[in-house]
Amino acid sequence: MERVLCGFDIALSWLWGVVWRDGFVRGLVLNLGFRSVRAIVFGSDGRVLASSSRRVSTFLSGDFVEQDPNEWWEKGLTCMREVLEHVPKVDFITVTASAACVVPVDEDLNPTMNTILVSDKRAREEASYISRLESFKKLPYEARAYYTIPRILWIKRNRPEVYEKTCKFLSPNDFFIARMTGRFIIDELNATKYYTVDGEYPRDLLKDLGISEDKLPEIRPVGFITETWEPFEKTVGLAHRVPVVVTTYDAICAFFGSGVSEEGDAADISGTVTSLRVLTRKKLRKDESRIFELSYKDWNIVGGSNNLGGGLIEWLLGNIYPEYSYEDLENLSNLLSAGTGLIFLPYLLGERAPLWDDDVRGAFLGIERFHSRDDLARAVLESTGFVLRSLIEAIEENGIQVKKIYTSGGLSRINLINQIKADVTGKTVYKPKEIESTALGAYILARRELEPGFDSSKLFVIEKIYRPNEEMYKVYTNAYGLFKKAYESLREFHSERRNLLSIKELRKVNL
User: Fold this and answer.
1) β-strands 218-220, 185-187: how paired?
2) Which single residue of 191, 370, 434, 508 has CA 20 to 30 Å from 252?
């Protein structure tokens, strides 16, 4: 049912004729996170005019991590309807969500199975097989289960009936855009998860794998403009066509929504996962495989994401402190678990950058009789600083200096964690007033295309600055050494543990 448009796809008419109403360019951003879907309308000054959110469910089973795209869509529609009740006329719509997820759909845009999420590890064998192919060895990528092509190959091998029914294998962004516009489009940065090179799919590899390129979405640059189609307009109550600006996945949107602007500026975005990326003119070493590099305009964006950031706090509050709120965690500021030798490995779902270890899991180490529940909780908070430092180390080992950190996302609401991150890393941490950096970044990227010369710097206001404490930095440097040794010491244990596990049923969980 894909909609076909010709020429400039009506983009130029919108590009030169953005409608200004009451002094605002109103942009509706649909933001799908790991735990929720949100719709936010921003005004021209970056102020939130309306917002709505709904929780989404996750299903876990061993290596499997899935969500239901039909739930995304229904709850996304609810959120969009609610914000449009408050702001009935918007000038554009854009979408941002996680990368490296697979949403298979049929020709009528109906999902043919649940979405395989970014933290899913089922495609290990497929990644190993791909790594041995000559057609893959020519590509500048690592063959990990994280990437989209191994996951599509897993579906082809293990769910052949799904593969045959599937018209397109999409990312979450593409899924929503297809439902809004009738078009199968993926942005050039999201498409790198399909092993693209210079904006082209790896045709030789696809041929070797028997995967049809026709089943993949059309690659377009960040900022490509299409428009809504009638089925979507009727569903949400839009009275007219609205431009849909193709931006990119959440970590990159959040990067631009955090306030970075100069060489060495880094963005720490801690939603359910933590992403750290730095703005630089420099490039990674050719042998570097722990972190990513993306080019945008005249800059390089270097860094990566782990598997859990704010998700650790959700787990902590749900299982150790069910009576606590985020704000209550500030009461742990008088503790220092690392100073007593208590270390927490925060790898509850394995780890992505910079370890890329699917087998590792969480652990408390060094527990003594005098340690209390508060000490365990404090160790969890401190681990967020340690994983951030590990990402910074991977970046700086490439000769790229991280000079300062802008923090955003749900985890940045906790002042104690922001200070811990400053003390662990030795970097000054800046907290912008607007912590919805992902949605704001999507708004900024879209508006740059609609309004050439748009200056986004006026949208950023620093609310608080956290400077590292020199004595605490020394304590945490020693503790960080223990943190790394603990991981290395347990690698064999975690590998053997995985081989003993047999978890067959999907379980619905809240993360």
Assistant:
1) parallel
2) 508
What average pLDDT score do residues 17-36 get? 74
Q: Which amino acid is at 153?
A: L
Q: Residue 268 in 3-state DSSP?
A: strand
Q: How far is CA 151 from CA 104, 160, 383, 499, in A?
A: 11, 13, 30, 21
State the pLDDT at residue 504: 54
Q: What is the pLDDT of residue 474?
A: 96
Predicted structure pTM score: 0.81
Please say whether the beta carbons of 309 and 272 come within 8 A: yes
C-alpha dihedral sign at 50, 441, 29, 117 = negative
Peptide bond preceding 354 in cis form (omega within 30 of 0): yes
8 A C-beta contact, residue 288 and residue 398: yes
What are the residue ranges of helices labelled H in 132-202?
A: 134-137, 148-158, 160-165, 172-181
Are 14 and 93 within 8 A, CB to CB? no
**Residue 376 and residue 371: Cα distance in Å, rounded?**
7
pLDDT at 311 (0 to 100): 86
CB count within 10 Å of CB 140 equals: 10
CA distance 65 to 140: 27
Percent of the chain as helix, strand, coil, to the nearest 5: 40, 20, 40
10 — pLDDT class (breaks 50, 70, 90): very low
- 206: which 2 tokens? 């696809």
3-state secondary structure of 1: coil
What is the identity of the amino acid at 454? F
Backbone angles phi, psi at 332, to 5 degrees: -90, 10
pLDDT in tens, 235-269: 999 988 999 999 999 989 989 999 899 999 999 98
Residues 6+ apart with CB under 8 A from 63: 120, 121, 122, 124, 358
Helix-helix angle 310-319:373-396, to 10 degrees: 170
Coil, helix or strand for 376?
helix
Task: Set out the domains of the chain in order of their start, with CATH numbers.
Answer: 11-248 (3.30.420.40), 259-509 (3.30.420.40)
Query: Please, which residues have CB within 8 angstroms of residue 450's CB and are 6 or more apart in sequence?
Result: 14, 15, 18, 25, 91, 92, 225, 243, 245
Amino acid (1-letter code) at residue 509: V
Q: What is the 3-state secondary structure (H, E, C) of 79-132?
A: HHHHHHHHCCCCCEEEEECCCCCEEEECCCCCECCCEECCCCCCCHHHHHHHHC
CA distance 479 to 59: 34
Using left for φ > 0, alpha for ψ between -120 and 50, and beta otherwise, residue 332 falls in alpha
- Write down the mean pLDDT value for the chain: 90
